[in-house]
Structures are given as C-alpha cells and as structure tokens.
Amino acid sequence: MESAAPNPSAAAAATAGNGVQASGAGGERPEDASKQNLAQVTSSIQKTLGLLHQLNLTVSSFNSASQLPLLQRLNALVAELDTMQKLAEGCDIQVPMEVVNLIDDGKNPDEFTRDVLNSCIAKNQITKGKTDAFKSLRKHLLEELEQAFPEDVEQYREIRASSAAEAKRLAQSQSTLPNGDVKVKAEH
What we know:
By secondary structure, the protein is an all-alpha fold. Helix content is about 70%, strand content about 0%. It has a domain at about 10-95. The protein contains six helices and no strands.
C-alpha cells in the first residue's frame, strides 16, 4: 500500500487520464483480471487525489468567479468516487483490522508488515532451536545405544536408510517434496 501525500505532478498525471483502462482479450486468466481491476482502482484513487488537490486549490482561493469551476470539480469528484466504488466491488482484498487500526491511528501500515515478519522470524528461530535440540538428542541416544546394543543399532540404521530411499523414490514419483509437501508450479 502506498503512502499517498498529494503530489501536484502526480495529481496532474493522474487527472490526465480517465482512470479506466481498456480490458484485454476475452481469454484472460482470473489473476490477470484481478490485477487489472486493482490497477483500475489504484488509478481511480490517484485521480480522486488529484481532484481533491484541485478542489483544495479552488476552495482556498474562492471568489464569486470561481463558483462554476468549484461546482464542476465537485461534480467530477462525485463521479470519480462513484467510479471508484463500482471498480472496488470487483476487488476482493482482505485487509487485516490491525492495518486499518494503524491507519486510523495515523501510523504507517508497513509497521504491521514489519511486526508480522519479525514475529515469523522469531517463531522460526524457536522452531529451528527445537529441531536442533531433537537432532542433538537423537544423535546422543544413537551413540549411547550403539555402545549398549551395537548390532541392533546397525540393523536400525540399515532399516532407516532403506525406508528413506523408498520414501525419496515415492516422493519423486508423486511430485511431492521429501518433507511431504506437494510441489506447486511457479506462477509466471
């Protein structure tokens, strides 16, 4: 999400177009149509910001001669808001309430993204620590078992190696990853 301070040059550029892009061929993929719809909404938002900037300039220097331009700009703003509303109905974007609350509090929504990423990194480090601890415990147990039961441990390692090879072969034949996840084709 862009932080949008009304920029006169951006506002002029946004108001130069009509804010609606022509749709492509009928064979569009759903994600392409969604991206195009989102681009149209973004363009409409930019045009609305430009109209608000123009309206602000008109109101700040208002005199009786500027009444007609004021009414024209108000009508253009209402029409663009209506267009934006219609375009937005086609967008299915889920915004977390935390982000909306941050915006309401006048804070940058990027803080939410940063906090979520930091939380994920912290949880990932905790999980990695647990995994490393279990690997260390497994290694230690195997060392202790090998001292007490060397034949059984050797048999265990052979069984484990053959079952790992079988699981790998099966995973490759079913297009799954060794950890059990299914491979997903990358989007282009």
